[in-house]
Amino acid sequence: MDGPAADGARLPPPRAGSRLCVRCGERKAALKRPKTLEQICRECFYIVFEDEIHQTIVENSLFKAGERVAIGASGGKDSTVLAYVLSELNRHHNYGLDLFLLSIDEGITGYRDDSLETVKRNEIQYGLPLKIVSYKDLYGWTMDDIVKAIGLKNNCTFCGVFRRQALDRGAALLKADKIVTGHNADDIAETVLLNILRGDIARLSRCTFITTGEDGPIPRCKPFKYTYEKEIVMYAYFKKLDYFSTECIYSPNAYRGFAREFIKDLERMRPRAILDIIKSGENFRISTTTRMPEQGTCERCGYISSQKLCKACVLLDGLNRGLPKLGIGRTKSGAGADSDGKQRTKRSERRNTSLQGKHGNFDF
Ligand SMILES: Nc1ncnc2c1ncn2[C@@H]1O[C@H](COP(=O)(O)OP(=O)(O)OP(=O)(O)O)[C@@H](O)[C@H]1O
Hints:
Elements: E1 5-6, E2 9-10, E3 31-32, E4 39-40, H1 42-59, E5 68-72, H2 77-92, E6 98-105, H3 112-126, E7 130-134, H4 135-139, H5 143-150, H6 155-173, E8 178-180, H7 185-198, H8 201-206, E9 211-212, E10 220-221, H9 229-238, H10 254-269, H11 273-283, E11 296-297, E12 304-305, H12 311-320, H13 342-353
Helix pairs in contact: 2-9, 7-10, 7-11
The chain binds adenosine-5'-triphosphate.
């Protein structure tokens, strides 16, 4: 029988024969660790899984005692495991953090409403206060409305741009010092690859940072940067965690899907491939002649932006004026039509396409 399957991560059978665990040498091995292919028992798997995350947190000084940390909680496997493991580590290692669940309700009927029910149960199961903020309240539009206006093709751009800002705004309401998200090693390797494929040097240079946005309103970090998706699914399965495993109904991004499959193939042949791609991403050096966007603030909403208007304001403007494609495709300074030649067109295309992810924005 196959192991748990979720979100593209089909696992090998968790049984590992009658051998003894290579770590403790006492209990029977219950699984082959996807990251190292070691045969280990369940108890040792929990220990190494949690220890590696603890090491990542400590070595990268992700938190300071007394901080308020908002966990971006979608109800999916990654953020559910993150909420569970972070509250366990906070207790065991006395991090001294105040943890909160922060959910963004994008307004996707039959998807987010169901996954939010999972987060509401997690609130009780883990004893973590939950704050939900919605696109409808923040922007006056749900994703259902946006898809009606724009169709399926570019909807991920809206969703990703709005979510990024909504997480900041929700975290500000919680007076959080930090946001953590469940982006895992597979997600990061995939983003490295996509940024190479798109020639998006600005994002390539920062997509492997474990903490980003230190110059913005609230820094955000990724404690699962080195954690394999397959191990997250295994952990959730063995611990019987309550999570929601349906893919977004509006998620058509074939290009990212292709990169994802490619990485899964590499992982099958060589499990280290995921870590190696991340390592390559970490070690790229950007040539000093490459033009990088300059960070400023949006004239309208004050949110960080490298243009006069931030992407969220441009997209919202388009929606409200009945021109939903305004902020999509070829734009000049984030708004209006492009007219001055190839190079600018290429840059603006890059800006726009690189905002699209499995769920929109992966530039965390
Ligand atoms: N609606 C949301 N509300 C709060 N946080 C979110 C939401 N959607 C995504 N996130 C955060 O961004 C991370 C990456 O999200 P994404 O949907 O791209 O990946 P995923 O692999 O499906 O994650 P998950 O399994 O947690 O849903 C999530 O782990 C979560 O921390």
